[in-house]
Structure formats: structure tokens, C-alpha cells
């Protein structure tokens, strides 16, 4: 049996502090993460690692957006981004940013717009 | 060239699924969440960002409790456009003054839909200004409520101080097909902008 717990911190800040080891924002490759960035696991979850990391790897066997992950795990974006930065640095997940309508140097992505349009017309 | 079934060139393998995003903006109570809900394939979800007044490079959460803390929520949905392309729709928070705090909220978006309630035009002024300031292409969707008066489009364009190039469409945000049509209008608008951009090159 576990020891009785103190009432949880209503703001969640204490929990976030523990989860992230006190880091408030991601650095490196994760600093460009977007709510619509798709996360895909590159490795199977290993037991013994931090529970949240394991949970991310398990949920992202199929590509899942950062926003969906946040909603499922009940974590705000900035906290989740710190956890994703760990996994990105360890090469355990891949991040695919949303495709913009204009690709730098290549002009408007007409093929993409056509693809979106035909998808919408099938709805 | 057709890359269907193949991974996008220059991208690592692993399924090749990609995403695009569209933002849904507009004043409080104009129907943003309603539109996300009606057109989404999944039950709409909410994601949050906790914001503090502390500067971005402060590296400790400790002590943050006595700083001003704001939670900004985004309601969002998803449409599977085909096996390998997902469209994410994000309803922006009603309080536009918080948008700038959510770093890059509009970055990488294809464009935006600005919902307008014709009974309260002014409630969407701020959203329109922000789209123009951030240079996000957008269409205006007049969400028709049962007691809305039918104003001529020109009057509305005038009142909203819109350029003649900004499309204005009427919709019923509760209706899936109607909301889909607004998305179609946005993509057509983006294609037209592309054509103009190509011609003036």
C-alpha cells in the first residue's frame, strides 16, 4: 500500500515540476513543435522509463498530433513539449511539422491545396 | 508528380502520414467550437497551454505560483482527408489578447476562417485585425443565427473594412456540409492567391 498522499496541487504546477525535472520549455529540435505536429514512435516503449515517456511511445505507434497527445495525457502544451524533447533527442520519436501552404523557396504548394480540396469534397 | 503511397521526398520513412492545420477564429460566441464539432471526424478535444508572465528563458517553474498564470485552451478536431493526410482544425481562444502568448499559434497554418455573428459584427473586429497583422490568409464566414438580419454582403464588407479580395460566405456552423463548404471556400481562396502570386513573379 502506498502512503497517504497530500492533497494534490490544484494548479498542477507541482506535478509538472516533477514531470519535467523543473524545465519549463524545450530546447533544440523540440522548440519548433506545433500543436499540429505529428509524433511517431520509432522504438517500442521500454518499461522502467518515465511513465509519461512510455505512454507517449505507446500512443504514437500511429502518428498522433501534439494536441491530441496533450488532450489524452492531460498535459499542457509546454510541459508535453519538454517530454517530447527528451524523446526526440534520444531518437525514440520522429516529429513531422504540419505542411504550410507556402514552402520556403518553392512557392505555393498547389498540389497540396488540390489534395486538401479533393479530401474535403469527399466528406 | 504523384507521390501517393510513397514517402514525401526528403522525409524519413514510417508511414508517411502528414498534417495540415486551419485555424478558426472570431469573437466570443460566434460559433468557433460549434464549427469544430460539426465538421470533425473525431469527438472534439481540448488542449491547453499554461502561460505565465515569466520570460521565456526562465528555466524554473518553481516560484511561478505567485506570478500571473493564464490557461489558454484550444478546442480542436480532425478530418482524415485521405489515408495519409490529416487536417487539424483549431478553434482559437476567444481572448485575442492572449494569442501572441501562444508562440507560433498561427505559424504553419494553411489559413483561417473568421466567424462573424452579423448581430454583433464588432465582436470579430479584433480577430480580423490579428489575421491581417499576422498575414494569415482568411475567409469570413457569416454564421447565420435564426434571428440574424440579412444584410447585403457589400454592407458587411464595408462595416468590417475588408479588402475586396477577402471572400465572405454565409454558413450554419452547426451543419457539417455547410462548415465543410466554408473550408472549401478557404482552399479556393488560397489557390487564387497562389495564382496571383505566380502571375506577379
In short:
The complex is a heterodimer of chains A (about 120) and B (about 200). Chain A has about 120 residues and is α+β, with helices and mostly antiparallel strands. Chain A is built from 5 helices and 5 strands, in the order H-E-H-E-H-H-E-E-E-H.
List the helices and strands and how they pair.
The complex is a heterodimer of chains A (123) and B (201).
Chain A: H1 13-20, E1 38-41, H2 51-59, E2 64-65, H3 66-73, H4 77-89, E3 93-96, E4 102-103, E5 107-108, H5 110-121
Antiparallel strand pairs in A: 1-2, 1-3, 4-5
Chain B: E1 18-26, H1 32-39, E2 45-52, E3 69-82, E4 85-91, E5 111-116, H2 125-134, E6 138-143, H3 153-160, E7 168-171, H4 176-199
Parallel strand pairs in B: 1-4, 1-5, 5-6, 6-7
Antiparallel strand pairs in B: 2-3, 3-4
Do you know the CATH topology of chain A?
Answer: Arc Repressor Mutant, subunit A
Number of strands of chain A: 5
* Percentage of residues in DSSP E strands of chain A: 5-15%
CATH architecture of chain A: Orthogonal Bundle
Q: How many DSSP helices of chain A?
A: 5
Query: Which CATH first-tier class of chain B would you pick?
Result: Alpha Beta
Helix and strand sequence of chain B: EHEEEEHEHEH
Pfam families (chain A): DUF742
Organism (chain A): Streptomyces doudnae
Protein name (chain A): DUF742 domain-containing protein
Organism (chain B): Streptomyces doudnae
Task: Describe the fold and architecture.
The complex is a heterodimer of chains A (123) and B (201). With 123 residues, chain A is an alpha+beta fold. Chain A is built from five helices and five strands. In chain A, β4 (102-103) and β5 form a beta hairpin. The radius of gyration of chain A is 18 Å and the shape is elongated. Chain B has one domain (18-199): 3-Layer(aba) Sandwich (Rossmann fold), CATH 3.40.50.300. Chain A: It comes from Streptomyces doudnae. Chain A: InterPro entries: DUF742.
Amino acid at each position: 500500500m502506498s502512503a497517504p498522499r497530500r492533497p494534490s496541487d490544484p494548479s498542477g504546477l507541482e506535478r509538472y515540476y516533477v514531470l519535467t525535472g523543473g524545465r519549463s520549455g524545450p530546447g533544440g529540435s523540440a522548440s519548433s513543435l506545433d500543436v499540429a505536429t505529428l509524433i511517431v514512435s520509432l522504438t517500442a516503449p521500454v518499461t522502467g522509463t518515465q511513465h509519461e515517456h512510455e505512454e507517449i511511445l505507446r500512443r504514437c505507434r500511429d502518428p498522433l498530433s501534439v494536441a491530441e497527445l496533450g488532450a489524452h495525457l492531460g498535459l499542457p502544451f509546454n510541459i508535453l513539449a519538454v517530454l517530447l524533447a527528451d524523446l526526440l533527442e534520444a531518437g525514440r520519436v520522429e516529429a513531422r511539422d504540419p505542411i504550410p501552404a507556402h514552402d520556403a523557396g518553392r512557392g505555393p504548394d498547389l498540389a497540396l491545396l488540390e489534395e486538401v480540396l479533393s479530401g474535403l469534397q469527399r466528406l | 508528380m504523384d507521390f501517393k503511397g510513397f514517402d514525401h521526398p526528403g522525409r524519413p520513412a514510417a508511414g508517411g502520414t502528414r498534417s495540415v492545420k486551419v485555424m478558426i477564429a472570431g469573437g466570443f460566441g460566434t460559433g468557433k467550437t460549434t464549427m469544430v464539432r460539426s465538421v470533425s471526424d473525431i469527438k472534439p478535444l481540448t488542449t491547453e497551454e499554461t502561460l505565465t508572465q515569466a520570460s521565456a528563458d526562465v528555466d524554473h517553474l518553481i516560484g511561478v505560483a505567485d506570478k500571473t498564470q493564464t490557461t489558454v485552451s484550444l478546442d480542436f478536431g480532425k478530418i482524415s482527408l485521405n489515408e495519409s493526410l490529416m487536417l487539424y482544425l483549431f478553434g482559437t481562444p476567444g481572448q485575442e489578447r492572449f494569442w501572441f502568448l501562444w508562440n507560433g499559434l498561427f505559424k504553419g497554418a494553411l489559413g483561417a476562417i473568421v466567424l462573424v455573428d452579423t448581430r454583433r459584427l464588432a465582436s470579430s473586429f479584433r480577430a480580423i485585425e490579428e489575421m491581417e497583422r499576422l498575414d494569415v490568409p482568411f475567409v469570413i464566414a457569416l454564421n447565420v443565427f435564426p434571428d440574424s438580419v440579412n444584410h447585403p454582403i457589400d454592407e458587411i464588407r464595408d462595416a468590417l473594412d475588408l479588402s475586396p479580395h477577402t471572400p465572405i460566405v454565409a454558413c450554419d456552423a452547426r451543419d457539417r456540409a455547410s462548415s465543410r463548404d466554408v473550408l472549401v471556400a478557404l482552399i479556393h481562396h488560397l489557390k487564387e492567391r497562389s495564382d496571383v502570386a505566380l502571375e506577379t513573379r
